[in-house]
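tool_call: predict_structure(chain=1)
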Amino acid sequence: MGLRENIVNFMEEKVYKPMSKEELALEFGLKGKEIKVFYKVLKDMEKEGVIIKTRNNLYGLVDKMNLVVGTIDGNEKGFGFLVPDDKTKEDIYIPSEDMNGAFHGDKVVVRLKTRGLSGRRDEGEVIRIIERANETVVGTFESNKNFGFVIPDNIKIGYDIFIPKAEINGAKTNQKVVVKITQWPEKRRNPEGKIIEILGFVGEKGTDILSIIKQYKLPEEFPRKVLNEAETIEQEVFKEEIEKRTDLRNLNTFTIDGPDAKDLDDAVSIEILENGNYYLGVHIADVSHYVRERTALDKEAYKRGNSVYLIDRVIPMLPKELSNGICSLNPNEDRLTLSVFMEIDKNGEVVDHKIVEGVINSKARLVYDDVSDFLENGDKKAAGKLEGQLEELKLMEELSNILYKKRERRGSIDFEFPETRIILDEEGTPIEIQKEDRRIADKIIEEFMLVTNETIAEEMYWGDLPFLYRIHEEPDMERIEEFNKFIHNFGYNIKGSQEIHPKELQLLTHEVKGKKEEVLINTLLLRSLKKARYSEENEIHFGLASKYYCHFTAPIRRYPDLQIHRIIKAYINGKLNPMEQERLHIYLPKVADHTSTTERTAEEAEREVEDLKKAEYMSKRIGEEYEGIISSLTHFGMFVQLDNTIEGLVHFSNMIDDYYHFDEENYYIIGEHTNKIYRLGDNVKIKVMNADLIRRTIDFMLI
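tool_result:
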């Protein structure tokens, strides 16, 4: 048992009363250098929020002292909620007078003040800030004669930041800036800061997206050291390397991607075997050949965790020499791959497979829309662009249907959410926003990547090797029960009280397909499920109804994929010795946590940019009229979604023909005098009233 466990066990004893660090060291019988190490462990445990040091310097366990550790989820009105680190605990309400200078995102210790009465939340007070999340804040600068202040872009930060005259550093009113906090807020006193960077005026080309990049602290440039390393990498494949590998250059391999993609990580090939089975090849860029562990390139890729795609730019995980160059499976160029060949029968079962280090020469770079136009409508023009791949594409469509049906039998849940496509002009202004449906070509690639990821994960699992899985745990039954109550309003019901099988939820998504309430029910269902994440321990992937799953197919843009490529290569070359396995067992939990976090950050930034561009698009269309459907109901109004995926709020205060309120029992909005009813999925006509670029919200009124 380690020192930390000993400390926790000691403090957990009933008779334990908080002690000073000196008393604890004495109690543990430590001498000389041991004491120094012991104090450091205490400090680390305090930083993590396991123990706390009281005002008179005595140590005790957080859990035993009516305290809870977690992260603040702020609100613009000044109050907040504590989201506990311990996921079994409910959120705790923190009134604004008890926030004690805590900001949104800070890691804090909260003392429970009142236990929530039935149906009410527990209340608490912040007594210690363990770690600040926002050393810097992005916002809009406003100048006053002798000072200035910054209004944060993140509305969850409930303070404006005061800027003394000496710290304005040339910023002008209405410029987006980055401010470094120099003094944290205290009771009735705003935080103070100094301007460290000016991003440009509001409305200037690119300033808006740059502000979001800064807000999420996404890296913009690669460090010089990393670029130097990237520049030394040869941009061609050497003969000596080809000789060590399985030569697949005669195979009819090709890529299918979006028209603008430059980082092509996967190519495919297909044949029919004599026994009638399909022989599918999935060829993934061998990034680990070029990005070696512990190099500057590797450390930077780990730090970034993934590439981030923001409408008009990509923040790549690897420099372009790799991501668009030697690692990208560009047509008619020799490229190194980690290739998986799977023999798949007519039921979609993978009856045999092998993994090889290969070299391919992609015969074509196909585009999703051309492939879909050909397969869906037999389009002649598209067929002309796909010459040489037509037979293969038909086989691929056949196989992907078989794989999809197999997943469906198993209970895999498919959410059909429309994607948004935003088209910008030269100035970065959105000129068109449209709904983008998933078509057959997207589905083919998706099925092939899924089956590859499963095949790899299953082999590594049974080999009992250290590995990084992609897991999606079973949902919380409480949340499913809440969701079940909700869908009862619409005449649906989920069976299964003790535990739920994905099949039940899959049946529901089939039932609502094409109905008015489809988007809402799917959205709420998704929210009732847990978030998929990376883990060194294998668990099910609930949404895919899969026992074994990993991310293997995108090592140019996701670090977990690169990490497992290294493990797989060591494994197929017989180099996973016990020492290396031991090292991986210690290292992989860290990779899993870190990359799960960077993935969430990327998703939030991507969503934020999308919301911003939607608000900007509508801000130029004030007064215009559209048709939409009611997509959700709240106590203050209803949201209406237009055909182009844009959503806006019709606030009750803007429904002037009556007093309306939300009837939660019957799940509709009703007028007091007219008894006029609005339900989910109703078609309505709206007029655009307002679009707020800072809050990224849009207001509609009914016509």
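agent: Residues 578-619 form the longest helix (42 residues). Proceeding to next step.
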